[in-house]
Structures are given as C-alpha cells and as structure tokens.
C-alpha cells in the first residue's frame, strides 16, 4: 500500500478536528472553546507526525519488511533475550592468586608424571633428590642391619607392653599384637618342630569305612548285578536260538512236507 500524501494527511487531521469539535457552540467567540479546539488540533497533528515516524523507522519509507528482514529482526531479538548472563568474577587477592597458580602448576606436573612409564617416574623422582648416596654393598648391608635392629626394638616394646598388660583396645585394633614374622624373629625356639613327631605309627581300623570306600562298594555291587543280568539274558537268548534250530531240523527231516 503506497504511503499517504501530505494533502490526504491534512484532510484526515481536519476531519478528526471537526469530528471532535462537532456541535460546539460559539467556536469563534468563546475563549475556552477556542482553547479546546486548538488543543484538539495539536493532538491530531501530533498523532499524524507519530504515524509518519513509525512508518519511516525501518528505513523503507513505510513499506512492509521483507521476510529476510523480519527473520533477522526476530533473531536479533532472540539473541538479546537468550544471551547468557555473564557472572562477575570474584576479585581475589594477589596472595590467593599466587597460591592458585602454584596449585595448578603442581597438579599439571603430577598428571604429567603419572602419565609416564614407571621407569621414567622413578627417574623423575630421583632427579628431585638433592643429596644422592651411591648404593654399594657396604651401605646396603649397613642399611639392612639398621632396619633389622629397628624391627627388633619395636618387637621388644610390643612384648614388654603385652607382658605388662599395657596394650589398650586401640593398640589391639591398630595391630599392637605380634605378627608371626615378628614372633619368629624375636624367639625362633618357639617354632622348633618336635624331633619325634613322625615316630608315632597310626593303625587303621579294619571295620572303618570312609564315605569314598562306601561309594566304591556300592558301585562294585551295582556293576556286579548288571553283569549277572547280562549273563542271564545271554543264556536265555542262546536257549531260544537252540530251540529254533532244533525245530527247523525236524521240519526238514519230515518227508510229508515234500509230498
């Protein structure tokens, strides 16, 4: 629909004013009536100017928007509506920022080392050592003796506590009692075998039958019964066969069969 011309707009404004002021008396004489008429004219003109602005706001001289323009306007509106709200970052002190950075670096380093093979992990940890002691036979034996002495001391403390009854329930739950290895290292004489333990001879009772023997006896009895039944069936079959052969021979020897 083409835009309206100025003359048409003026006619509409004039008609609107006439409609609103229709029937008023003393239009040209009364001051109040003239003020009301002027106010109606201003409102009509203002309304007409607002209509022109709305029709030309899209830059198309009052023409309708194309489908593409409508779609773009709709998408822009949706982007404004559904745009994610940016959360304000909390301000942290420089000390906290430094601690966070160090923790992140340590975590990255830990993950990097964990992804390496075991051999490389050992080398990584060894490289971090500041004091490096060469491993020799003498040093190893000295370390071994030291560890054995520490274990023996700890065992003696446990034995003394057990004898004096100084072990609490917490100690017992924590493993305060001696383990088999600790007891063996503390006093090996407790674990000496009896030299005459294998001299005693055990005789088996003849009437005693274990469950395995009973099952074997039952199986043997069952097998014997089956074999006897098979032999009896064979004898019966042999007797029946002999009787049939005798009857056949007798029939062949009878001359009346051929007359």
Automatic annotation (TrEMBL):
<keyword id="KW-0863">Zinc-finger</keyword>
<protein>
    <recommendedName>
        <fullName>ZC3H15/TMA46 family C-terminal domain-containing protein</fullName>
    </recommendedName>
</protein>
<keyword id="KW-0479">Metal-binding</keyword>
<keyword id="KW-0862">Zinc</keyword>
<feature type="region of interest" description="Disordered">
    <location>
        <begin position="195"/>
        <end position="233"/>
    </location>
</feature>
<feature type="compositionally biased region" description="Polar residues">
    <location>
        <begin position="33"/>
        <end position="48"/>
    </location>
</feature>
<feature type="compositionally biased region" description="Acidic residues">
    <location>
        <begin position="195"/>
        <end position="205"/>
    </location>
</feature>
<dbReference type="GO" id="GO:0003729">
    <property type="term" value="F:mRNA binding"/>
</dbReference>
<feature type="domain" description="ZC3H15/TMA46 family C-terminal">
    <location>
        <begin position="117"/>
        <end position="209"/>
    </location>
</feature>
<dbReference type="GO" id="GO:0008270">
    <property type="term" value="F:zinc ion binding"/>
</dbReference>
<feature type="compositionally biased region" description="Basic and acidic residues">
    <location>
        <begin position="9"/>
        <end position="22"/>
    </location>
</feature>
<dbReference type="InterPro" id="IPR032378">
    <property type="entry name" value="ZC3H15/TMA46_C"/>
</dbReference>
<dbReference type="GO" id="GO:0005829">
    <property type="term" value="C:cytosol"/>
</dbReference>
<feature type="region of interest" description="Disordered">
    <location>
        <begin position="1"/>
        <end position="70"/>
    </location>
</feature>
<dbReference type="Pfam" id="PF16543">
    <property type="entry name" value="DFRP_C"/>
</dbReference>
<feature type="region of interest" description="Disordered">
    <location>
        <begin position="87"/>
        <end position="106"/>
    </location>
</feature>
<feature type="compositionally biased region" description="Acidic residues">
    <location>
        <begin position="213"/>
        <end position="233"/>
    </location>
</feature>
<dbReference type="GO" id="GO:0002181">
    <property type="term" value="P:cytoplasmic translation"/>
</dbReference>
